[in-house]
């Protein structure tokens, strides 16, 4: 299949995976390997990537030479907080500029605060960051984020960590149809079928963390998600048959039957 292009770089995998919630870095590495993911997200406020030299570092388990890091602003509730966090990440990762922006609205739903997100995106893009941005499934906001200069727009399928799947495929379809930058479903995927549906809609990729890390067997689930994303993408490219409401169609031709 054709590669996923983000900020001018090509990736063979269309599954992006988070690095949090695993029991240890060893399980993290095993799950990432099983997923085939090349882009891994890391919560700068929650994961050690050099801030504490006396503790194990994710950089040792997942060397940046093998994976593309996507620092994110999980846990930030204001634009200023998110901007400050990503500037810290750029220092810790030697000038790394590909980042995931998320500004949350409240600690219960973790729904994005789109007003603060828009402001943070404007500042970060002007500051030279390549911004992939978590947002609501509002097509107007998604388009504004593209216009600001974000390199990928990442609408939620449902609430972060909920595992509820894709609750509004119609809004996602509008976003996919209107944007030219990659559209990546972020948040809410719970099962492999959710990932396949997202890809069949035409999403460019899927990002997930809890769906894998929270599974009873994270490594096996990572493998399942890899296959689901690949199958969904192939199904989208193949072009499904049209739906025919209240109209049956025989699988075999009805003309030229033997004995007729």
Describe the structure.
The structure is a single chain. This protein has 260 residues and is α/β, with parallel strands linked by helices. The chain is built from nine helices and ten strands. The strands form three sheets. The chain has a five-stranded parallel beta sheet with strand order 5-4-3-10-9. 42% of the residues are buried.
Task: List strands and helices in order, with pairings.
Elements: E1 4-6, E2 9-11, E3 15-18, H1 25-35, E4 39-43, H2 58-61, E5 68-72, H3 79-92, E6 98-101, H4 114-126, E7 130-135, H5 139-148, E8 152-155, H6 169-178, E9 184-186, H7 192-201, E10 205-208, H8 210-213, H9 218-238
Parallel strand pairs: 3-4, 3-10, 4-5, 6-7, 7-8, 9-10
Antiparallel strand pairs: 1-2
